[in-house]
Amino acid sequence: MIKLEEAQDFIFSKCPKLPAAKVEISESRGLVMADSVLSSENVPPFPNTAMDGYAVRAIDTEPAPVELKVVGTIPAGKFPDFAIGEGEAARIMTGAVIPEGADSVVMVEKTEKVNGDLGVIIKEGVEAGNFIRQPGEDFTKGTELFSSGVLIGAAHIGVFATIGLEKVTVVKRPKVGVVSTGDELVEGAVELRPGQIRDSNRHTVKALLGEMGVDVVDLGVVPDDESKIESVLISASEECDAIVTSGGVSMGDFDYVKVVLDRLGEMRWMQVAIKPAKPLAFGLLNGVPIFGLPGNPVSAMVSFELFMRPALLKMMGYKQIWRPTYKAKAVTPLLRRKDGKVHFARVSLKKKDDLYEASLLDGQGSHQLAAMANAQGLAILPDGGGVEKGDLVDVIQLSEPETN
Question: What pTM was computed for the model?
Answer without folding.
Answer: 0.90
